[in-house]
C-alpha cells in the first residue's frame, strides 16, 4: 500500500473512532438541546482533521476529496449535525485550496488553519436575493485603507462558534448583483447581530440562526478569482458532494437500525422470515440507488477536476449534473429513513430505543431545503433549454 | 450576465445564426464578451459574422 493510501486509511480510522466514541454518544443531546456539537469539534481539532485537505506544503494533511467525503459519510452515520459542521468547514477549505492563484494572503491563512485548527463558517445566502446564491446585495465597500461590508444573512450555520467567515459580496458598491467575490474575515474583525432564534425540525446542532454581519477588513482578504468561477468549479459541486455523503450516512444508519430490528425479530422466531424482512429489502433497494448516485457524483467530480484547466466543470452540462446529485440525494435520503422507520414501527418511532430513526428522518428532511430544490430545478430548467449532452 | 440571461442570449444566437453550440462552448468565458461570442459563432459558421 502506498504512503498516501496509508495516510488516508489512518485518517478515516481516526474519524470513525471520533464518530463512534464522541459524536454518537452526544448525538441525542445535541439534537434535543439544539446545541453545538462542541465535543466532536474538539476531538476533530485535536486530530488535525480541520486541515486534512490542506496541501502538505502548507502544513496540512494533503488528503484528497475522496477522504473528506468518506469522513462526512462516517460522521453522518453517527450525528448528522456534527457531520454538517465538519462538511461546511471543509467546503470552504477545499474552495480556498482550489483557488489559491495569486492569493498569497490565503496561502498564509491556510497555514494558520493548520496551526490553530480554525473553524470556517459561511454566509452565502442573503435577504433580498430570493434564494439565488449567484446574486448579492452586500458589497465590498472602501473605507480608508481597508474595506467593510454589512450583510443580512438569513442563516449562518454555527456562526457564533466559527473563527472565520467566508462571505459572498458584490465586488464594489457600484457592481451588478451577479458581479460577486468572496471574502474571508476573522472573528475579531466582525460583529454578528442575531436576527432570530434556532429551534428547527432537524439538523438542530448546526445552530444556524440569522445574523446581520458587519466586518472591517483588508482588501487582500478578498479571493482574487471571481465568485462565479469559484462557485462553478468548486463551491457548488463540493457542497453537493459532501452534503450528499452526509445524507447517505444518515440513511445508511437508519437502514442499519432497521436491519438490526429485523435480525432481533428473526432470532426470536427462528425458522421463519419475519414480515418486516421483506420491507427491509425494499428499503435496501432505495438505499442502493442513493449510494450509486452519491458515489458516481464524487467520481465524476474527481475526473473532471483532473482535466487541465477544469474546463468540464465550467460547462452547463456539469452544472446540471451536480445539481441533479443534490436533488436526487436530498429526495432519496428521507425516503430511506422513512422506510426504515416503517420497518421498526413503534420501536423506531420512540426516541429512546436502539432502533429510533426519528432524528434520522428529521435531519434528512433538511436536505431538500439547503438551497431549495425548486430553486435548483428552476436553474436546471433554464440550462436544459440550451445544454445538449446532459 | 446571470445564467438565465445567458441562456436567453444563447437561444437567440442559435436561432439567428442557425447553429447549435456544442456543450464544450457552453461555459462562462465563451459568453462573457461580444468578441468571445463572435469568435464562437465564427468557429461554428465561418463567414457568419462580418
What does this structure look like?
- The complex is a heterodimer of chains A (390) and B (50).
- In chain A, helix 3 packs antiparallel against helix 4.
- Chain A has helices spanning 3-33, 38-46, 65-78, 80-98, 104-116, 227-268, 275-306, 316-344, 346-349, 358-364, 373-384, and strands spanning 120-123, 141-143, 146-153, 164-170, 180-186, 190-194, 211-217.
- Chain A contains eleven helices and seven strands.
- Chain A starts with a helix and ends in a 6-residue tail after the last helix.
- Helix content of chain A is 54%, strand content 11%.
- By secondary structure, chain A is of the alpha+beta class.
- The radius of gyration of chain A is 21 Å and the shape is globular.
- In chain A, strand 2 (141-143) and strand 3 (146-153) form a beta hairpin.
- In chain A, strands 2-3-7-6 form a four-stranded antiparallel beta sheet, with no helix packed on it. In chain A, strands 1-4-5 form a three-stranded mixed beta sheet, covered by helices on one side.
- The termini of chain B are far apart.
- The model of chain B has no long low-confidence stretch (mean pLDDT 83).
- Chain B has 50 residues and is an all-alpha fold.
- Chain B contains two helices and no strands.
- In chain B, 52% of the residues lie in helices and 0% in strands.
Amino acid at each position: 500500500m502506498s504512503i498516501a493510501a496509508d495516510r488516508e486509511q489512518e485518517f478515516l480510522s481516526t474519524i470513525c473512532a471520533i464518530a463512534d466514541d464522541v459524536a454518537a454518544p452526544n448525538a441525542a443531546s445535541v439534537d434535543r438541546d439544539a446545541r453545538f456539537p462542541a465535543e466532536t469539534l474538539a476531538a476533530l481539532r485535536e486530530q488535525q482533521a480541520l486541515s486534512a485537505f490542506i496541501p502538505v506544503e502548507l502544513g496540512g494533511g494533503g488528503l484528497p476529496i475522496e477522504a473528506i467525503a468518506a469522513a462526512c459519510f462516517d460522521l453522518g452515520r453517527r450525528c448528522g449535525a456534527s457531520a454538517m459542521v465538519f462538511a461546511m468547514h471543509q467546503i470552504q477549505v477545499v474552495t480556498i485550496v482550489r483557488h489559491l492563484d495569486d492569493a498569497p494572503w490565503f496561502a498564509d491563512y491556510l497555514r494558520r488553519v493548520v496551526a490553530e485548527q480554525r473553524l470556517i463558517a459561511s454566509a452565502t445566502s442573503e435577504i433580498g436575493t430570493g434564494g439565488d446564491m449567484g446574486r448579492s446585495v452586500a458589497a465590498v465597500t472602501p473605507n480608508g485603507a481597508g474595506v467593510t461590508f454589512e450583510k443580512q444573512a438569513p442563516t449562518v450555520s454555527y456562526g457564533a462558534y466559527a473563527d472565520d467567515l467566508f462571505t459572498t459580496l458584490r465586488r464594489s458598491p457600484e457592481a451588478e448583483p451577479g458581479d460577486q467575490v468572496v471574502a474571508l474575515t476573522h472573528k475579531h474583525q466582525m460583529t454578528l447581530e442575531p436576527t432570530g432564534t434556532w429551534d428547527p425540525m432537524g439538523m438542530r446542532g448546526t445552530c444556524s440562526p440569522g445574523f446581520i454581519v458587519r466586518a472591517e477588513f483588508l482588501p487582500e482578504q478578498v479571493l482574487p478569482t471571481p465568485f462565479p468561477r469559484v462557485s462553478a468549479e468548486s463551491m457548488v459541486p463540493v457542497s453537493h458532494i459532501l452534503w450528499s455523503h452526509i445524507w447517505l450516512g444518515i440513511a445508511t444508519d437508519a437502514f442499519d437500525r432497521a436491519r438490526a430490528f429485523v435480525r432481533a425479530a428473526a432470532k426470536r422466531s427462528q425458522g421463519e422470515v419475519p414480515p418486516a424482512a421483506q420491507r427491509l429489502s425494499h428499503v435496501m433497494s432505495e438505499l442502493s440507488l442513493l449510494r450509486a448516485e452519491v458515489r458516481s457524483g464524487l467520481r465524476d467530480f474527481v475526473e473532471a477536476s483532473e482535466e487541465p484547466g477544469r474546463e468540464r466543470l465550467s460547462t452547463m452540462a456539469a452544472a446540471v449534473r451536480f445539481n441533479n446529485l443534490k436533488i436526487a440525494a436530498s429526495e432519496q435520503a428521507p425516503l430511506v429513513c422513512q422506510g426504515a422507520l416503517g420497518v421498526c414501527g413503534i420501536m423506531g418511532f420512540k426516541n429512546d430505543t436502539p432502533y429510533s430513526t426519528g432524528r434520522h428522518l428529521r435531519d434528512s428532511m433538511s436536505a431538500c431545503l439547503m438551497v431549495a430544490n425548486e430553486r435548483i430545478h428552476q436553474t436546471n430548467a433554464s440550462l436544459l433549454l440550451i445544454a445538449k449532452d446532459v | 450576465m446571470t445564467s438565465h440571461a445567458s441562456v436567453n442570449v444563447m437561444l437567440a444566437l442559435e436561432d439567428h445564426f442557425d447553429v447549435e453550440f456544442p456543450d464544450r462552448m457552453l461555459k462562462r468565458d465563451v459568453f462573457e464578451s461580444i468578441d468571445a461570442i463572435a469568435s464562437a459563432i465564427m468557429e461554428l459558421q465561418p463567414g457568419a459574422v462580418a
